[in-house]
Amino acid sequence: MKLNIYSLVAAATIALTLQSGCKKDFLDKQPFNQVTGDVAFTTAAGAEKLMAGAYGGMYNDYHIWDYMVNGDVTSDNAYAGGDNPANIQIDLFTANSTNGNVGRDWGGLYSNIKNANEVLENVPNIQDQALDANGRRNQILGEASTLRAYFYFHLVRLWGGVPLILKSPTNLEEMQKPRSTVDEVYAQIIKDLEYALPNVRTSAPNKGIITKGIVNALLAKVYAAKPNPDWAKVQQYADATIAGGYSLVGTFDHLFDGAHKNNSESIWEMQYDGWGGPSGRGNWMTGVIVGTGWKRFCTPTNDLIAAFDTEGDIIRKNSSVNFRNVSTEGWSDDYWSKANYPFINKYRNDDLANSYILRLADIKLLKAEALNEASTSGWSAAKTIVDEIRLRVNLGGTPANNQAAMRLAIENERRLELAFEGHRWFDLLRTNRAVVVMNAQKNGSGANLNYNVTAAKLLFPIPQAELDRNPNLK
């Protein structure tokens, strides 16, 4: 039954991937983390392969590419660009249950959860004593729990309440679970992260492996994103993260120049070694957002450029956006003149460019937010942190001098600091600012873009294929 269930999921995911018009075909690659034989369930080496499978499953469309579509294109940071109807629907808030990205992302995240569940189900039963040397068994279980929490964190923010699948289904009833409530999903996320925290290691060979810093940072973000944020918990876990030995990189552009991977600011970072590398883990983002010849995806918005310019933020603007003259190209654009056309500049090193899942500036600004929300006088302590982030890019201190002004200052600082890293839409959602911000969007000529966003459009629809398979999904 397990094999049949996972075969259905795999078939659906493959079909959706083919629909989506990806520029790189993941099906050309032999999975570098493929697990074969009973070794996966009987030995310490097999446990490591299962864990590698859980990490390796993250090298899919969602974590390589769609995180930016969902986090930045949905928001006021980027237009869809390109010619992909699914991306354009998401940009314009017209996506329905047959949207290819919506189905692909649901399938991809639940496939990731399946991989984490296999670790959590099988590793406790492996009798190989080598697995307990130096507490490795507990580390693996903590890493898998963290990954599962992270995947559900994306699901709950994109779809609201979703089915909680915490073990491999063995019958039809377990396959066709109804949606849990948003609160139930968040409770499970926190449970998984709290289990993981004492078990995972403090440091690892690279920033792609789960450590205490990652768990602490996720807990800070989860407590801020809950329907009723717990700002004391946000500050607690932000402080724990900051105390974990991280430090801001002195030169902002070094975060994205390709020469400073796994740097002191990085907390969690996708590790890419190129499509021809030993693991075949290439980040194809550069090929679809930069270059000419055909219209690229994820075009920076007029509104974002204006935000950089209003702030006088030259350093972060130049690191984030690169303007080019593409007048001779055969495509057209509704938002920009081709004589001075913007491309995202944070991903420059072809398929070797790593991407950040979490970095210290994000968590520092989250702590500033927690301080500001804790009391009407908290803005003063928050200002110290905001000014630290601004100083790195040669900006003066924020003029915000009360709680309301600081709230907007932090929102803007997060936008300029973290543009194109997949955070903006989720920031707007958790602060209940998405509707007002998106409905105020204008093009370069000052005409309203008429997104007509309502509360009903803030979440993705359940994919139609899932509704057809599961009558308990509403």
What is the element layout, followed by pairings?
Blueprint: H1 2-19, H2 39-42, H3 44-56, H4 61-73, E1 78-81, H5 85-92, H6 100-122, H7 136-159, H8 172-175, H9 182-196, H10 212-225, H11 231-242, E2 266-270, H12 285-289, E3 297-300, H13 302-311, H14 314-320, E4 321-324, E5 341-344, E6 355-359, H15 360-374, H16 379-392, H17 403-418, H18 424-430, H19 434-439, H20 464-469
Antiparallel strand pairs: 1-3, 2-6, 4-5
Helix pairs in contact: 1-6, 3-6, 3-7, 6-7, 7-9, 7-10, 9-10, 10-11, 10-15, 11-15, 15-16, 15-17, 16-17
Protein name: RagB/SusD family nutrient uptake outer membrane protein
Subcellular location: Cell outer membrane
Organism: Pedobacter cryotolerans
Number of domains: 1
- Helical residues, percent: 40-55%
CATH topology: Serine Threonine Protein Phosphatase 5, Tetratricopeptide repeat
Please give the largest β-sheet.
2 strands, antiparallel
CATH architecture: Alpha Horseshoe
**Rg estimate, integer Å:** 22 Å
Average pLDDT over all residues: 91
Total number of strands: 6
End-to-end Cα distance? 25 Å
- Structural class, by secondary structure, is mainly alpha
Give an account of the 3D structure.
This protein is mainly alpha-helical and 474 residues long. It has a single domain, classed as Serine Threonine Protein Phosphatase 5, Tetratricopeptide repeat, CATH 1.25.40.390. The protein contains 20 helices and six strands. Helix 3 packs antiparallel against helix 6 and helix 3 runs parallel beside helix 7. It is globular. It starts with a helix and ends in a 5-residue tail after the last helix. The N terminus is likely disordered.
